[in-house]
Every structure is written in C-alpha cells, then in structure tokens.
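Troubleshooting log. The previous structure file for this entry was overwritten by mistake, so regenerating from the original sequence record. Sequence copied from the archived sheet and checked twice against the printout by T.R.
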Amino acid sequence: MRTVLTAEKLWTGTGLLDHPVVSIEDGRIASITPRAAGELAAGTGGRVFDYPGATLAPAFLDVHTHGAAGHDVMEATPEALKTMGRFLASHGTGSYLATTVTAPLDATLRSLAGLAKLLAQPPNVGETVTWPIGIHLEGPFLSHVKRGVHPPEYLLAPDIAVFDRLFEAAEGHVRLMTLAPELPGAVELTAHATRRGVRISVGHSNATAAETRAAIAAGAVSATHTFNAMRPLDHREPGILGIVLTTDSLFAELVCDGIHNTAEMVKIWWRCKGPERAILITDAMSATGMPDGEYQLAGFTVQVAKGRASFGDVLAGSVLTLDRALANFLAFTGASVEQGLRLLTANPAAMTGLSDQAGSLAVGQPAKLVAVDAAGRLVASIQNGQPTSA
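Regenerated output below.
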C-alpha cells in the first residue's frame, strides 16, 4: 500500500524543501516532490499522514549507544537487539552503531562474533525495528586515569594484533573505535585501523595537546563524548580538550542530557564545532526507557535514579534518547531545527563513512524518517514506511 507523508518542511540531509510530499511504496521512498506538484494518495487507496508545522527529516543515527529497553548490545542475541530496536524506532532512531564496553577479551570477542552474525541478517523490511549498521569499540585501549566506568583490569595497551583479532571477530563490521592518544602504540594503531576502514575517535584520555595532534595526524577523525572522561582544559597545556575544540576538521560527540554537561558547556561546544562537525549521541545503556533501579552495563551493576546512571560516584552512560537530545540541544543553544537535525543525521553519517546508509533522504532508500516540531520534539517516527506517533 502506498503511504504519503506531508509536512511544513523537509530536511533531506543536505537542504530544505518547503511543503514536501513524500510517497512511500513497499517500505521505500518512491518520490519526493513539493506539495504543489505532488499528487496525494487520497482516493487511490493510499494512506496520507500530514504533520502540519513539522519538519520531516532522515531518521536519526546514533554512533554511540550501549543498550536500551533492559538489554545491552553485548548480549548479542536476536531478542536483545529486537527489543532494543523496537524502542529505538519509537524514538526516531533509524540506525546505530552497537557500542561495546571494556570487558574480558574473550567475552568481547564472543559479543563481536554474535553481533556480526546479526548484522548480516537484518529484520524484514516491514518490521519497525531499528538495526545496527556497524560496531563501535569503546575500549579496551583507554586511559586508566580517564577510564570512567570501564573496568581497569580489562584495559589494554594499544596492540595491532589484538585489534586485528577484534576486527576479524566482528567480520569487518567495526566502523568506529575510541582510543586514548597518549598510550604507547596509539599512533601506530590509529594508522593501522584507519587503513582497515575504521574511524578513530579520541577519548577516555589524559592526553596532552601534542599527543592528541599526533593521533589526528595519524588519522583520528572524531572525539568521544566531549568534556567527559577527558583531561580538563588548562591555559598553558590545553590538552586533548583544547585540541578537540579548536581543530576544525575534527568531529566531536556530545551527550546533551543536562547531566553530562551543563547548558553553558553545550554552547561552548556548539560555538567551537559548528553545524558541520558537531554530533549528538546518547551513550545510552540498558536502563534507557526503563524505571529507576539496578541495571547491567556489560556485566557490572549500574544504579539509575532520576535520569542519572551511576556506578558509585561515576556516570555510567545515560538514559538519553536522541529525540530528547535534539530538543535539549535546541533549548540550550537557540540553534534552528535544521541545524540541530544535522547533528543526528548527516554529521554522524559523514564521520563514519555511512552516508550511503543513513543521514539523508533520496528516492529508492528505505523509508526511515522522523517528523519534529519547531522545538525539536518528536512528532512521529516512520520506520520502514510505517508511521507511529511519538
């Protein structure tokens, strides 16, 4: 059955279209036209969904998420990913990178092997389930000083042979890896992983400015949850944070939940990185979408209360969703809806090299869209051509 979507505007991932008409057939975009030239499906057996005052856009891409709806991606089971995927779809996320946490090497290898098999067998087109399109390795090559909740006993020095084992276990699906630039061997591993098609994100790091510049020169393209688990800024040794904020070519993630960073810090990040290099993420864990209580993050227990996920006195990811991140970002910065949408669509797709799979809208693509209002709040999520109200 044909489905037609109309709204005030459409953000395609590259530009705006006023009064769009988006036609969907068999779960894919059949046409995108201005309303004046578009033929609505009324009277032809099709369904029409109108979102007055809203902006249609590509469904969100989250490049840093560990879990949701009571499940962790490292479970690597169909049940876990499908339960997560239904929840993510309802909040506008159309694609994500399944993000690991530092764990025993054998356990990580098993999870990666399981994820690789699942990535090769996505759900049917008609299912409203969001599925990962790659893997983000957050660990084990992280700083002990800035490890956050990553277990210190499982952290490893950068090692090309170990990385290759991880990459092969994932059958090449590793798309992004967080790495502390100051660790011995980090620059060599950055260059090696980059040659294998993996994007390197600097983070969980106590690196100096010079050490960070060396990683960027070797191929690093992004920064992991800016401000968090990073050496603080100093006016004589700007460190990793100073380089992240002032290197125009570098993308930079941010957790915009009002807990990881204040509104003032979000504004600083936005002014430094701008609309083409800023990326919103969730860093979400299994408690996302669940009531307060105790939850698992890759094998250890996290306490969740009043929107804060903690392991002792350390933040342990978040319970944020990308639709909420967008609304928060607009409220904190005053940015336009179109500017905000780039941070969850085109920018993460460009950073990861996945622009052919996410971050834009074009005829022939799977129909994964969102409708958001002027404040960035989710109005509807359209996954595989199936609209649902927020």
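The chain has two domains: 3-56+368-389, 60-352. Archived copy saved in two places this time.
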